[in-house]
Amino acid sequence: MNNWREAVELIDSMNSAHDSDLLAAARILSAQMKTLMKRKKRMITVGDETLPVEEWAKRNGLTHAAIYGRLKSGWTESDAVTIPHQSDGSKFAGKTLAEHAKDSGLEKTCIYARLQRGWTIEAAISTPKIDSKGKRS
């Protein structure tokens, strides 16, 4: 046997009415290896360093879901893995989202959603919210 796939196939081919603990453990290992072999890890290169998304996430205090979400939103790979997560204390044009929400009369979640869609902070806080009937509030 010279690779994992052959080992997995051999374990899968074993059938016995009286499975030993070793064979049961081997079947569990086989199932786990199949899962790992199917899973493709996305690799991202920043500068001269290439790492899987999960490793970039660990290194930079992000979640892999946040990185994948950023990539889906059109962020560059470099920005997606290196820009730190913005908490509620982040400043936009000198104020937190909570401060902008209070000043503009909009909800913080509305402003945040607009920023996530690529709006500028100025547009996000100055554009009135439109209600379900198409009226600006």
Your description of this structure?
This protein is 54% helix and 6% strand. The chain is built from eight helices and two strands. A two-stranded antiparallel ribbon has the order 1-2. Helix 3 (53-60) crosses helix 4 (64-72). The mean pLDDT is 77.
Helix content: 40-55%
Provide the spatial order of strands within the biggest beta sheet. 1-2
Structural class: mainly alpha
Cα-to-Cα separation, first versus last residue? 70 Å
Overall pLDDT: 77
Largest sheet: 2 strands, antiparallel
The shape, in one word, is: elongated
Number of individual domains: 3
User: Over the alpha carbons, how many angstroms does the gyration radius reach?
Assistant: 25 Å
How many E strands? 2
DSSP strand content: 5-15%
Tally of DSSP helical segments = 8
Low-confidence stretches are: none
**H/E series:** HHEEHHHHHH
